[in-house]
Design goal:
Shape: globular
CATH topology: tt1808, chain A
CATH architecture: Alpha-Beta Complex
InterPro entries: HSDR_N
Pfam families: HSDR_N_2 (PF13588)
Number of helices: 2
Strand order of the largest sheet: 4-5-6-7-8-9
Strand content: 35-45%
Largest sheet: 6 strands, mixed
Helix content: 10-25%
Structural class: alpha+beta
Distance between the termini: 33 Å
Protein name: Type I restriction enzyme HsdR N-terminal domain-containing protein
Number of strands: 9
Length: about 150
């Protein structure tokens, strides 16, 4: 897999029917490793080990209904009251972070109403804070601290 602009971590990979799988510590199972999953696993590890986000408050591949369509959020972190805190959209390293990617996470956040968003392809990361009352966005220099 490609080297990312994220800290390396100890991961477990195994072959199942000739295809590589990576152990997902949150879902407690091996999942098929794709370039996007590689980024997602790195982001989850970063949140837990570097930013000290509680593992129990992080959900990956969560479902949501948007305009009567079933969609999946890559990573959603909840605050201690169980409200969405941080929504993360992961793309493969080969995918450019275009306006369409930002539009996608904005649509998903219309449902979740998280105050923080991150878009990443593992090489480039954009973090922003959302003020839902004034509908303003401010870009941040780093991931938000978990409180």
């Amino acid at each position: 897999m490609e080297t990312l602009n994220l800290p390396a971590f100890d991961y477990k990979i195994k072959q199942i029917e000739g295809k590589p799988y990576i152990f997902d510590a949150l879902r407690r199972k091996y999942v098929r490793i794709t370039p996007e999953e590689w980024v997602r696993q790195h982001i989850v590890h970063l949140l837990i080990t570097h930013y000290l986000y509680p593992k129990a408050l992080i959900r990956t591949e969560g479902g949501l209904t948007l305009n009567q369509l079933q969609k999946r959020t890559d990573v959603l972190v909840f605050d201690r009251q169980g409200k969405p805190f941080l929504l993360i959209e992961c793309k493969a390293p080969s995918v450019a972070l275009t306006q369409a990617v930002f539009d996608q996470i904005a649509r998903y956040n219309h449902v979740h109403q998280a105050p923080y968003l991150v878009v990443t392809n593992g090489l480039t990361h954009y973090c922003c804070g959302i003020d839902h009352e004034t509908a303003t966005v401010r870009f941040l220099d780093d991931f938000p601290a978990f409180v």
